[in-house]
Amino acid sequence: MLKGIPRPRRADLTERALAFQNPRLPIPLRLAAWLPFARMWWPLDASALKAKARRRTRLTDFGALAPLDVPLELLCRTLDEDAELHALGRLSTHYALLVALSNRLRLEDLARRRPQIFERPVTGPIVIAGLQRSGTTFLQRLLARDPGLRSIPFWEALNPMPFAEPIQAPDPRMKAGARVLKFIRWNAPEMDDRRNEAPDEELVPLAMGFSSMFFETISPLPGYLPWYVTTDHTAGYAYLRRALQVMQWIRPAGERWLLKSPQHLEQFGPLTATFPDGTFVQTHRDPVRSVLSLSATMSYASRQNYHHPDPHLIGRHVTDLTERLLRASVRDRARADRRFVDVHFAQLNADPMATVRRIYAATGTELTEETERLMTVWYPRHRRGRHGVHSYEAADFGLSVPALRERFAFYYDHFGVPREGH
């Protein structure tokens, strides 16, 4: 999976870990993963990708308001030299970078031609930050019942900028999103939890300014991570705000934005500086649950990039990532003087509307009877676990629950998060 890191011995793998390491792809994809000439067809080279994005969009200016050359070069080099991507992995990674670069070119073109876009600010967003399995998706989709809130559906998160103007109806980006979801469901059916029209995360809009942890979900990135974790991402978050201004001009909907991503946990400084009138919601749950869930998701999704994913390496990577996010949140919350709302998973699950009322009180806006009705009709049919849950053991990822609890002791104590049974 990563060059120079030996895979664990078969005897050290659980039955589930063996299944992760030896995925059974549909036959056409299995054959495609061995395609020759992948390096030539889908280069992971910064100059080649920028040139291809320019040809694809017929635009040239990437702008200079957010980082580009240094992170792109580091990212391409580590993906090309350290990650043992199969042909489909090179294709999907090449495409992901190309999408980010193409969207950035389109944003800069719109900004140049239509400066009036930036006359309307991004005001009072609600931003949800929390680990996987802590209730962030449920809470975001619940709040999105409010027609006064503007979220980013999957198809728009994938391609934040329109392909061309005038925008056709239906927007061709919707069809592009549907194609991506169809491929995911074919290749990795257990990841079938996204919907084209459902609110999603702003990882791709952040990726345009290379201030996104999106790339870490593809693979551990030893050559890129030191730059990412030591860089002040204030410029990248300002670029996100710029993207949101373009998006709300293209498709007006709602009075305020509803955003959500786990990466915000380590970016409270840039986040609050960019959105000083925002309301910030941090969800809390035993991080052991999150580590096991994200390790399983990444191990399963890695079949799209690697012949033999390493669930033990992924487990270590996810543990390090989770600790990094949580330590940053503890550090930066101590400095914060903004409006934060803490939401514990058990409280959210027991009484979702009580949580919603607390959030609306923090925003200083009214929760209308009609909005409350829309939410109370929606949430009983969408509670977590209604369609079953996946169960994973720490041993599947070479981890130990007691060791994880020790690493996260600072977080349990700081936020009063209860330990759950495993």
TrEMBL record:
GO terms for molecular function: transferase activity. Signal peptide: none annotated. Keywords: Transferase. It holds the Pfam family Sulfotransfer_3. Transmembrane segments: none annotated. This is Putative sulfotransferase. It comes from Acrocarpospora pleiomorpha.
